[in-house]
């Protein structure tokens, strides 16, 4: 794995951001825009994924980074659950649901793989040097 200097270089952060933009479109282009509570919940959960990846990276320590990645993975699951709520409330159709659930499952898998990588690596972060 190449040295990553910024969280913006992480593929999992880029994917989390891409998916956040997809959620943002739904919140603006469907009747979800009028369901303030659910709209804000799914925006918060999907944004939390990229934010926790960034915050964990910036903590500059392997142990803390893994903790924040775990939180990000949890937020991906929360977002998936909320997608079913969007579907059940008729804000999105089955094709959009299936596509986004698949993408969030893949992102969860990538986050988990990165956690496994960090678990098996001796890197401690620059603040431990």
Brief digest:
This protein is mostly helical and 129 residues long. Helices cover 74% and strands 0% of the residues. The protein starts with 10 loop residues before the first helix and ends in a 10-residue tail after the last helix.
Describe, in plain words, how this protein is organized in 3D:
With 129 residues, the protein is an all-alpha fold. Helices cover 74% and strands 0% of the residues. It is built from 4 helices and no strands. The longest helix is centred in the middle third of the chain and has 27 residues. It is elongated, with a radius of gyration of 16 Å. The model has no long low-confidence stretch (mean pLDDT 93).
Main attributes?
129 residues
* C-alpha Rg (nearest Å): 16 Å
Determine the oligomeric state from the structure: single chain
Fraction in helix: over 70%
State the shape: elongated
Unreliable stretches: none
Secondary-structure element order, as H and E?
HHHH
Largest sheet: none
Kindly report the average pLDDT value. Answer: 93
First-to-last CA distance = 20 Å
Strand content: under 5%
* Tally of strands: 0
SS field, number of helical segments:
4
The structure class reads mainly alpha
List the helices and strands and how they pair.
Elements: H1 11-29, H2 36-59, H3 62-88, H4 94-119
């Amino acid at each position: 794995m190449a040295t990553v200097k910024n969280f913006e270089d992480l593929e999992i952060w880029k994917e989390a951001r891409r998916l956040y933009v997809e959620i943002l479109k739904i919140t603006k282009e469907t009747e979800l825009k009028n369901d303030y509570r659910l709209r804000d919940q799914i925006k918060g959960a999907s944004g939390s994924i990229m934010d926790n990846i960034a915050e964990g990276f910036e903590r500059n320590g392997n142990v803390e980074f893994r903790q924040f990645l775990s939180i990000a993975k949890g937020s991906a699951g929360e977002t998936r659950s909320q997608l079913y709520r969007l579907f059940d409330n008729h804000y999105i159709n089955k094709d959009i649901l299936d596509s986004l659930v698949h993408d969030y499952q893949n992102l969860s898998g990538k986050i988990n793989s990165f956690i496994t990588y960090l678990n098996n690596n001796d890197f401690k972060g620059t603040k431990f040097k």
